[in-house]
Design a protein that fits this description.
With about 250 residues, the protein is an all-alpha fold. The protein is about 80% helix and about 0% strand. The longest helix is centred in the N-terminal third of the chain and has 50 residues, at about 25-75.
Length: about 250
């Protein structure tokens, strides 16, 4: 801004100056003009360099996220152990040893915490660059590129199993006699079934991730991200519905 203010001042001064003054200071004016051109050229160069650096950083961020997403999908996280534990809890009887039941519940909490964290991380790495969107801070201090991605992250948080198991653990700990209500057992059985279905879906995309890592182009990676989110959303919707009916 100071440069343009100086140019404006110079133009006004030349318009108001008389011819004799201009002739006397013509050499000085030419020096000023050359200096202004040099400054403007340097400014434009720096601006171009800054923009280029920003674009390079965006590409590096994109490459990191693409690699991270595909690696997470390829290595995966199996929901089967959690599903098996939920099934075991759903089958306990009222005569079961409370210590044994509590141990199962605590195991499910730990497994659910890992599963919830994995899914949230996977979604964080599913940035889309089709529309050349800049990364920005979003919910829970995450860095993502779109409202759609943020909504999916929130969706996954709402479908998380950990808080449900935390509530079940608390209820079982304080209840006397220590029993798990039948409706809770039915919900856990249904959740286990849905988690198995979610695991099957992620296994399908695991094969696609392996191929993309070896041969995939940019468009292929973007499609895998989009298709993965679309495919897991129905599973999350069902889990959220189960939790809402349970009250957690």
């Amino acid at each position: 801004m100071p440069i343009f203010a100086f140019i404006f001042w110079l133009v006004i001064s030349l318009e108001t100056a008389d011819d004799d003054l201009i002739k006397k200071n013509s050499k000085l004016i030419w020096i000023f003009a050359v200096l202004i051109l040099i400054i403007i050229g340097f400014y434009n160069y720096q601006l171009h360099a800054a923009r280029e650096q920003t674009e390079n950083l965006k590409k590096l961020y994109q490459t990191k996220n693409d690699s991270g997403f595909l690696a997470l999908l390829r290595e995966g996280h199996s929901y089967i152990p959690l599903a098996e534990t939920l099934e075991k809890i759903s089958k306990v009887t009222d005569e079961e040893d409370p210590a044994k039941v509590q141990k199962l519940i605590e195991l499910a909490k730990s497994q659910a915490d890992e599963a919830d964290y994995y899914l949230g991380t996977l979604i964080q790495f599913s940035d889309s660059y089709v529309n050349d969107i800049n990364p920005q801070f979003m919910v829970n201090h995450t860095v993502m590129t779109s409202k759609k991605q943020e909504d999916m992250y929130i969706f996954a948080s709402q479908a998380g199993v950990f808080m449900t198991m935390y509530q079940i653990s608390y209820n079982y700990w304080k209840d006397k006699p220590k029993q798990i209500p039948q409706e809770t057992k039915e919900m856990l059985h249904s959740m286990a079934k849905e988690l198995r279905a979610l695991d099957d879906t992620l296994q399908e995309f695991k094969e696609k991730a392996i191929y993309a890592i070896e041969w995939g182009e940019f468009s292929t990676k973007e499609q895998i991200k989009d298709f993965t989110q679309r495919a897991i959303k129905p599973h999350l919707e069902k889990l959220i519905k189960m939790k809402s009916e349970f009250g957690g």
